[in-house]
Write a structure and sequence with these properties.
Elements: H1 2-15, H2 28-42, H3 52-71, H4 79-92, H5 98-110, H6 114-124, H7 136-165, H8 167-182, H9 190-217, H10 220-230, H11 238-250, E1 256-261, E2 267-273, H12 275-278, H13 284-319
Antiparallel strand pairs: 1-2
Helix pairs in contact: 1-4, 2-3, 3-8, 4-8, 5-6, 5-13, 6-7, 7-8, 7-9, 7-11, 7-13, 8-9, 9-10, 9-11, 9-13, 10-11, 11-13
Length: 320
């Protein structure tokens, strides 16, 4: 049933152009604070909550999910179980359509409304490491990181752990991501360091598999060379590694449309040249928009590759 659940969830996620979250992630911080307070109250003499805190924070909801799925198992010929599995995956996916957000961002970017593009990205991504849109290249880099980060944390890693160990493992990973996003103040605590190590372990395999899929769906030589260079680098986060391989895979720099500008900033000529030869005539916004579109296409092709491999595995398992 795993393949059917993943296929249905991916199809719904792809074609449902939602502009509002299914369930906003703001339920997590109150739960985290309440659990922390309860555990802290059990040992008030300690400066930090004990090891029970991360166990409850990361294990309580997955345990409840397992119990709920066991209770409804077989109901209505398994339809209830199927709906719950698909619904749980959708809740862990990106809460708004990534394609819709990207289209709105690129429309503003191409219109020269860089501040509007920055505000949209700031609204969608609280972890944005910028205060203003004065540096267009920095905004573009953050947008690319947002695209790849969403793909890693809210899609591919979730699907990977669902396929390997089931919905409880996928939810466990999702909770670690929410903790990293909303509980930065705990990063240096004992529980925070434990959760950060757990995230690194949980993301290690899916991040490298995703990077490998970029090799197969993009520029193989460039992406695989980059992956070979970085795959054992423990200082890089999963998102940083995947982003580096994705940029190598799309290789936008070698086939980008550049626009020669006048001194007033008006486009007066359009030429197709290599990035290394463009010099001062390269219009960064044009190249940036093309690169963002290439990344989106790469993610879609990689998603199709994963679904195709899952279908082959499903057919092979039925045959045996």
């Amino acid at each position: 049933m795993s393949f059917l659940v993943i296929l249905l969830a991916l199809l719904i996620n792809h074609y449902w152009q939602r502009d509002k979250p299914i369930l906003a992630d703001d339920w997590f911080p109150p739960l985290q604070r309440r659990l922390r307070q309860r555990v802290q109250a059990m040992a008030p003499e300690q400066a930090e909550p004990g090891p029970l805190y991360p166990v409850l924070l990361l294990g309580l909801l997955p345990a409840l999910v397992i119990v709920a799925l066991l209770l409804v198992q077989g109901a209505l010929l398994g339809v209830v179980t199927l709906v719950l599995h698909v619904g749980l995956l959708l809740l862990m996916f990106e809460q708004q359509s990534l394609r819709r957000v990207s289209a709105a961002y690129l429309d503003r970017w191409r219109a020269g409304n860089y501040h509007g593009a920055f505000l949209l990205l700031q609204e969608r991504w609280p972890a944005l490491a910028l205060d203003n849109a004065t540096q267009r290249q920095a905004v573009h880099e953050q947008f690319c990181r947002y695209l790849i980060g969403s793909a890693v944390e809210r899609l591919f890693a979730v699907v990977f752990w669902y396929l390997v160990l089931g919905p409880a493992a996928a939810l466990l990973y999702h909770l670690t991501v929410l903790h990293r996003q909303y509980c930065a103040s705990e990063r240096d605590s004992q529980a925070g360091r434990f959760i950060q190590r757990l995230i690194a372990i949980l993301e290690w395999v899916p991040a490298r598999l995703l990077a490998l899929s970029f090799c197969l769906t993009g520029d193989f030589v460039a992406a695989f060379s980059r992956l070979r260079e970085l795959w054992r680098d423990t200082d890089l986060s999963a998102v940083e590694l995947v982003l580096a391989c994705a940029l190598a895979a799309v290789d936008t720099a070698q086939r980008t449309l550049f626009v020669k500008e006048s001194e007033q900033g008006d486009a007066v000529d359009t030429v197709l040249v290599a990035a290394d030869d463009a010099g001062d005539f390269a219009l960064t916004p044009v190249r940036a928009a093309q690169q963002a579109e290439d990344l989106l296409s790469l993610l879609q092709r990689s998603q199709f590759l994963w679904v195709s491999l899952l279908a082959i595995l499903a057919v092979a398992s039925v045959g045996t």
